[in-house]
Amino acid sequence: MSIEDEIEILRQQLPSVHSNPPHILKAEESDIISIVAADRPDKAVVIGPGGYIAGHLAKNHEKPLSITAYTDEMIRDFRKTESQRLLTIMKTRVSEEQQRVLTVLDGLLTGNQPVDHSLTVGVALSGGRDSLASAVLLHRVVNILGLTVFPSDIILPRHERESLDRAVDTLGIEHRYVKADFSDIIDRTLEGQIHPCGHCHRKTFHLLVEWCIELSISSLVLGELLPTGSQSLRLVQGILIINLPAFLALNKRDTTDIASQIREYPGFALGCPLLKHSHRRFPAMKVATTKRVFREVRAGVLEPGEALQYVKSMLK
């Protein structure tokens, strides 16, 4: 029996059927079951209400499932084309060392992965999965200096630092903590005057750029997912800023899978202790946080179901 036939049998088992059979472009079985549906509505039919169809397929075959929509792959391919276009433009604007970094990025984008351990690249490590995924992707092809801004335990608590320390030890990369004074941001957040995330992000970014300049590191990698294509690379004060997951058109599931090679991510925790305190004391701040989550959904880098898990964790 084909996978397509199995899906149809399971679809007919539903208490009520309000869909046509999904248009499946490809269904293959190896170590996993890989299904490519034509569009997102077809993908939703393959998954089924509450994951009924996908869950039974995985159980029947005792294998994990990969279900994608071809339209999503089209967007991913277009974003990669835009990244390639930007890379070509940037090669005319950067230093010789930065050109070598761009050559490495070109290899990551095309799957060639040229190795140049004579290059040292700064990688911002926040403790999150997106930045760790960036380090995992790069540590075998260039020399990495991990940089983590540490303002306070209320922003980067001890257990997160210990987890980060174990991760960089596993990767075998050099890592430094950059001490910083975020007292103004912390005080204003505790008083309910601001939502901290944007303020922390901007200050952290400027501090890391300053450190790269001081250490004569020409390129800084960030674990950003959103600035894809023509926004994925830029020059700031002579430093080449590389939003690596965005440049490679990765999504949150991709970065989670990559980072999970080094540490486990069992749940959908959202935010640092400062943000959680802000949510408890000033519930209206949850609206701003939810908007930040939905921004990733709109960009297609976070699945609606994943976003729902993040929002649920915030509402507990």
Notes on the structure:
- With 316 residues, the protein is of the alpha/beta class.
- It has 3 domains: 3-72, GMP Synthetase, Chain A, domain 3 (2-Layer Sandwich); 94-259, 3-Layer(aba) Sandwich (Rossmann fold), CATH 3.40.50.620; 273-315, no CATH class.
- Helix content is 52%, strand content 17%.
- The protein has 14 helices and 9 strands.
- The protein has helices spanning 3-12, 40-47, 52-61, 70-90, 96-110, 129-138, 158-171, 183-190, 196-215, 244-247, 252-259, 273-281, 285-298, 304-315, and strands at 24-29, 33-37, 65-69, 116-124, 142-150, 174-179, 219-222, 233-236, 239-243.
- The strands form 2 sheets. Strands 6-5-4-7-9-8 form a 6-stranded mixed beta sheet, with helices on both faces. It has a 3-stranded mixed beta sheet with strand order 1-2-3.
- The chain is globular.
- The chain starts with a helix and ends with a helix.
